[in-house]
Amino acid sequence: MRFSGGIARHKDRLSVLAHRGRQALARARLRVSDDPAPLGWLIAVSTILAIILLPLLVIFYLALTPTENIWPHLSTTVLPNVLFDTLVLALGVCTISICVGTSAAWLVTMYRFPGRAIVDYLLVLPLAMPTYIVAYCYVDLFDYAGPVHAMVDQLFGWKNPKQSWLPEVRSLPSAIFILASVLYPYVYLTARASFVQQSVCALEVARTLGRTSMGTFWSVALPLARPAIAAGTVLVLMESLNDLGAVQHLGIDTFSASIYATWLQRSNLSGAAQLASVLLVFITLILLLERWARRGAQSHHTTGRYRAIPLERLEGWHGYVALMLAALPFLLGFAMPVLVLLQHASEHVSEALDSGFLKAVGDSLLVSSAGAIATVAVALTIAYARRISSHPTFKSAVWLSGLGYAAPGTVLAIGLLFSLGSVDSWINTRSESVLGISSGQIFSGTVFAIIIAYVIRFCAVAMANLDAGLQRISPNLDAAARALGETRLTTFWRVHVPLLLPALGAAALLVFVDSMKELPATLLLRPFNFETLATHVYDLVALEQFERAALGSLAIVAVGIIPVLLLHQTVSSGRAGHTATSIWKKQKRFAATNAAHS
């Protein structure tokens, strides 16, 4: 009896301690959720927002206060052609990307055919190819002086270009095709992520009601995947509007090309700012339309149990036809350009090394690494501030930080160059008046300007990874740390940062690769005698020396392959019936083990 009474007293004490622990945790949760916005975080986030929005606001300031009013000339002569080419290019690239990306994602997700697993990886590889490099390769192949024309002319006995029936590679339809062959993986990845997470029950119900496989796709799968496809399409649109090297080489007069030409070739900053302001308004309307179109659009599973999607086997020639159709985008967007680059690089290695390749590699590593570190730090500050407080500034900062990614690099370059130049001018004036010496260029025309451009442009890329990583960390950890006496800052360093290391690494890698490929902002903001791999390739192609640029192009592609494959692994591992079920089983085994020990 004494023994049983002692056990009862221990149980009572344990229950009291557990109750007190739950009360302390509840008080900590309440304190964390009800804390006002911390002043330090508020100042930091407000400063970051000012830096991100300042170049965009400067664009509108320059457009509304021009030194000379050339808007009538732009609106009547330049703007109609630019607007037409930009709209047709964007619409064509988005349409082809939607068709190719969605159909390929459905084929790989729902059917079993020879080589399916390999094709699933190959379909995302074009994302590692910068659009301007693919454009250079296609022009090298299909221009009139290229090998394809030479072979066809010899075959049919043609003597001049007028006799040839081959399409002109430097044209708007060719630009649409080339950009779509590189950018369709954005739609493929988002559509595939949506298809693998859809409920098997909904698909099977459609089949039991008499729907065919294609009928199920049109009536069930496609409507459920529409928000994901729209998100991928917006990324394709942003990349199309940002492109400069490809459209310049193909002779397409888009907004980016026209802004570049108006600023540098015609020496008219106000006119470039006016064109840039029109483009910013256009992009803002698109983003608002996309948010309005997917308002309240969400779907979720009604059960915690998942089954793998049953793959339909394609037998015989049907499977090989499916393999050919699925592999065709990879062949056009990656394999063919890489073969061209390998041929030129192997034949002109020594010439490429003598043209400044090693210096471009060093400069690229320097500025891309610095840009990745700075961008991840800025994105982490915004994401964590949003976690610890529901202040409106922190909420709006998450959305406003994405405006930099939506703005093309040419637009950011104009705003940054004017802003940093004004700061340098003010510092120089004060330095001469006080010290009697000129301070020169401190911010503009330096590597610092390029890093700031990378931070503004790719903050949204890092934000997506870090915000998702923070959401996977339970708020109970914050409350427990606060209950044990930790401050916000110590909780951040001792709890969240160790748990966020995978997300931090992924975000830094993505920003690093995007910085390596970035051409417009780097081209316009780089200091003298500073070459990244992107500008190195651009300058050599401008001098009609594409063969010497092949080695640098291959280096950019090689760096971009790793994060693309990691991104694909994240998407493909999310199949219902695999990840969710394995996690559920692990949790079940963990609970059973704890019950056995207790």
Number of beta-strand segments: 2
Rg, nearest Å: 28 Å
* CATH level-3 fold name of the domain at 39-69 and 367-527: MetI-like fold
Write out the CATH superfamily name of the domain at 39-69 and 367-527.
MetI-like
Report the major sheet.
Answer: 2 strands, parallel
Low-confidence stretches: 28-34, 300-305, 575-598
Q: In terms of structural class, how would the helical and strand content be classed?
A: mainly alpha
Integer average pLDDT = 79
Strand content: under 5%
Which strands sit side by side, in order, in the main sheet? 1-2
Q: What is the architecture of the domain at 39-69 and 367-527 at the second tier of CATH?
A: Orthogonal Bundle
Describe this structure as you would to a colleague.
This protein is an all-alpha fold and 598 residues long. The protein is built from 26 helices and 2 strands. It has a two-stranded parallel ribbon with strand order 1-2. α2 crosses α18, α3 crosses α13 and α15 runs antiparallel to α16. The longest helix is centred in the first third of the chain and has 40 residues. It starts with a helix and ends with a helix. The C terminus is likely disordered.
Which labels suit this protein?
598 residues, mainly alpha, MetI-like fold, 2 strands
